[in-house]
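Need a sequence for this fold. Nothing fancy.
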């Protein structure tokens, strides 16, 4: 497949057109941002980890009946994906209190939750991605009720599959963010699944193995990304 003009450059990825109008190529960068772009930096090797780990997760989910945008890995930083129209929602699942949830609701980080939380944020950088509920989503025309139902059902199933998968890697899936797209009228999982978009804690020591090490200047950022690759069996 031929790589054509750049369609978009985001904070962590570039997207290119291909000779097939249904497909595009995503290219993962080492650029890291946090706090809605206010903190910037580089995590050496992150693009490779996020590309390979996302592709691996999408394949695992596809094998378990989840439709995703993934088509094919081209090389260590690039993948072919279906060209979707992104639903402007960040779909967040929380299995344990952390990050902005802990701050907003006054629940210490690491606290148990009685049940998982499904949260929607309106994807809009100038507004800092405000939290929205079902009524907001319909009133603002961000998605239809049918789409919200489909996304919610898929997300809860993805959560179960991912919790189980990471448990086998001795990792607890604390929380994560998904994005969905529309492809020929069908909702498919899009974007990425990586240490940039998930909180991963070692099951025994609770050591953080994700982007919080960058957000909070904890050091050992590259090492944590490399460790996650090892845990899922994608590196020695
Ligand atoms: N997240 C993300 N992109 C965002 C916001 C959140 O990937 O723009 C992920 C984040 O990595 C975490 C989960 O969603 O795994 C919940 O994040 P939270 O709302 O606690 O926000 P944060 O503390 O990351 O600002």
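Here you go.
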């Amino acid at each position: 497949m031929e790589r054509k003009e750049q369609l978009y450059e985001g904070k962590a990825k570039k997207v290119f057109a291909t000779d097939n109008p249904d497909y595009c190529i995503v290219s993962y960068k080492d650029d890291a941002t946090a706090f809605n772009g206010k903190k910037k930096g580089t995590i050496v090797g992150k693009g490779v980890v996020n590309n390979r780990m996302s592709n691996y997760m999408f394949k695992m989910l596809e094998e378990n009946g989840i439709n995703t945008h993934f088509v094919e890995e081209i090389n260590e930083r690039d993948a072919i994906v279906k060209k979707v129209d992104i639903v402007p929602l960040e779909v967040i699942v929380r299995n344990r209190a952390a990050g902005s949830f802990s701050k907003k609701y006054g629940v210490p980080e690491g606290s148990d939750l009685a049940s998982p939380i499904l949260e929607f944020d309106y994807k809009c950088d100038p507004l800092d991605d405000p939290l929205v509920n079902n009524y907001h989503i319909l009133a603002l025309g961000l998605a239809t009720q049918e789409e919200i139902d489909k996304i919610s059902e898929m997300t809860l199933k993805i959560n179960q599959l991912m919790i189980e998968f990471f448990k086998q890697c001795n990792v607890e899936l604390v929380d994560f963010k998904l994005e969905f797209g529309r492809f020929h009228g069908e909702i498919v999982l899009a974007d990425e699944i990586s240490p940039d978009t998930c909180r991963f804690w070692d099951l025994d020591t609770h050591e953080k193995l994700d982007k919080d090490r960058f957000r909070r200047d904890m050091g050992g950022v590259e090492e944590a990304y490399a460790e996650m690759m090892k845990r899922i069996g994608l590196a020695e």
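For context: The pocket of uridine-5'-diphosphate is lined by residues 90, 92, 98-101, 129, 175-177, 197-199, 211 (CB under 6 Å).
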